[in-house]
Amino acid sequence: MVFEFIKTVSLFSQSDMVPILGPSLAVALVLAGPTDLGAFIRGFVWLELHLLTFEIKNQITGLEEDRLSKPNRPIVAGRISVGAAQDLYWVIALVSTVFSAQFGLLPCTVLYLAAIFCYNELAMSRNWFCKSFLGSIGYVCYCWGTTVMFDHGAPLSTLSTTAIVLSGLLHTTTGHAQDFRDRDGDAAIGRVTLPMILSPRVGRWSLALLLAAWTAALIWLWAPPALVTLYLGLLGLKAAAGFIQDHSVEADRVSYWWYNIWLITAHLLPAFAHVGVWNVVDPVSFLPLR
């Protein structure tokens, strides 16, 4: 009974373990620095609770999409009813809020829950820009909260704020990489995404150019060693080439996997920042103060 419940809960977030937990944990470990086991566990639990909150609500409102493209998800697979999933959503949302309040992260969770409401209940995810923007808010909150948890409740530094803001911008501009694999499911619920608006050639080449531009910009900003620079560049090239060369849904899933490896690597780059420089940088304007 307990095992089946744990399995059901884990299935809610199984498909997003790499694209969400990977970058969030990567950037938090880099920004918070070495942490102890207790802080890591608390941060991981905080992150998983918040991810589950979104996943449950998203799957309650996206049944038609899941029946078509993700039939192994727990509600459409018949492992849990919609009513029980709704109750579970409220319980986890409440636990997440209380947990955050204990570590000064209540604003983060309130912002996150508001984004979930807009994304699902207000159906703003059916618009391509709102989907990307609200998704980026989610990623910012994941990185924000997990970093603070790993750092024992300490507020974000200038470096951390800058890196997390950049993470949000990165997801806003390239997050639609996931939409190429989800074309059929999105069409089933009337969601309009960039891969559906743009021609295949324009949509895929524009994503490739964005990956190249972000790779160059992040290398310039964080100045990683040559081997890391080469590795990031090759990952970006692999992902971009995959999206361009093969337009099948299965190939897009593989290309999206490579995109996520590129994304995780990009989130590790702040580890190479020269801290002395960032002590005099405004996180809003990114311009030196002196």
From TrEMBL:
The chain crosses the membrane at residues 20-41, 88-119, 256-281. CDD domains: PT_UbiA_3 (cd13965). Keywords: Membrane, Transmembrane, Transmembrane helix. This is UbiA prenyltransferase. It comes from the Eukaryota. One of its GO terms (molecular function) is transferase activity, transferring alkyl or aryl (other than methyl) groups. The keyword Isomerase does not apply. It holds the Pfam family UbiA. It is found in: Membrane. It is a multi-pass membrane protein. The keyword Transmembrane helix applies. GO terms for cellular component: membrane.
